[in-house]
Model the fold of this input.
Amino acid sequence: MTQSTAQPPLPPRGRLGRPTDDLTFGAVFFGPSCPRNVSFQLLPTIPQTTDRAVLEAIHSALLQIRYMRHTELDPRHTQVIIMTDSAHVVDVLCTRVWEWEQQGFEPPVQNVEAIRAVHELIRSVERGLDVSVLLWRVEREEVQDAQGLAVVAADAAITALAGDH
Done:
């Protein structure tokens, strides 16, 4: 009788046939080989949606910009451009958030905590640091580098899941 050297099966697969399909990943891309580039997995306790990943990425980018402003960003830089392919998130943060804020975010808004956090951080950066934050909706091709970082995070999670078995 021979022993099998086959790998144990991977965990149940998600919607697209990958073991991480029930998880969502995001990334912030500042530029090629930039040490501030980061990819992440959303915590399992928050909604696993693309919009939430985009909101978390914007929040992360703004925190890094705030830190950079205090440490290394040239004070002559007075504008930050954040690009995303999510027309919905740009609409929410540039238009709808002001209406919702006046209404006390009633009726309930999906991702309200993340929207509020990003909205307040944008205000903080703009008022406290004298830096204008511009949100641009761009075509998917223009954010491929960030998407590549998110894929790296997903691949790392797949490897970790496979190693757990």
In short: The chain has a mean pLDDT of 81. The beta strands are 25-28, 38-41, 79-84, 132-137.
